[in-house]
Design a protein that fits this description.
Blueprint lengths: L10 E8 L5 H14 L7 E8 L5 E8 L2 H8 L2 H13 L2 E7 L10
Antiparallel strand pairs: 1-3, 1-4, 2-3
Helix pairs in contact: 1-3
Amino acid sequence: MTTIDPKSKIVTLINTFTVKPEHQDALIANLNKATEEVMSGFAGFISANIHKGLEPNKVANYAQWQSKEHYMAVLRNPVAMAHMKEAASLAEQFEPILYEVISSHGTQS
């Protein structure tokens, strides 16, 4: 499950996609399928959250991995790369960036 904790050593991939509005739902379906069938089976996978932009030309994938090395291993896997290429083909632009949590703010409910 997704955890946002500055004390953790996990890394977060935030991949923002720009798509034609008519491709938004197809990209979301692709990312969900790839996560369920492939990515979630990799060592180091923690979670993935797919976000549908309120602007119909945006999609974001917020995924967490135990380490940068775990994520980099995915990039060397041909099955994972096939899914990533398919997602990229649906997008006009995409920007995958790895992050670490520095702080988290909010209220408890």
